[in-house]
Amino acid sequence: MEKTEVVGSEGVVQDMARRRCAGRNASGKRCGRSPQPNGWCWMCDPNITDEQRKAARSRGGQNTAKITALMAAMREQTANIDVKLDTPADMTRLLEATTRALLAGIIQPRTAAALTGLVNSAAKIVELAVEQSLLEELERERSR
Asked: Which residue has the higher pLDDT, 131 or 75?
C-alpha cells in the first residue's frame, strides 16, 4: 500500500492508505490501478483470460459507439428546444426540470450549475427591467 497525506475537512493532515493492484508491468513496476477485492485490477487479474479481456474491450467499444450516437441525436433535439425565461414561473419550471434531470443522472452537476447560472442571470435581467419600468413610471408621475 502506498501512503499519502490528505488534508481533512478541519485542516488536519491524515494518513490515507491507497490500495494498488498486485500486478506488475513489463518493466517490473507496480501497476497503478485500483484493485478489486482480490487484490488485482481487472487488467492484471490472472483469473481473467485474454479472450475475456478482448471480448470486454469489444463490448466497451460498441457501448461507447452507441452512447456517442445517442448523445449526438439528443444534441440535435435539444438544440431546437424553446426555453422561456421571461417570468419567475418559466424560471421555476426550468429549475425543476434541471433538478429532476440531475437526480435521474441525465445531466452532470456542472451542467445543472450552468443552467442555474443562466436562470440567475435571467432573473436579474427581469428584476432590472421591472426596476426600470417602475422608475420610468415614477418619472412620468413627477412630470405631470
From this structure: 131
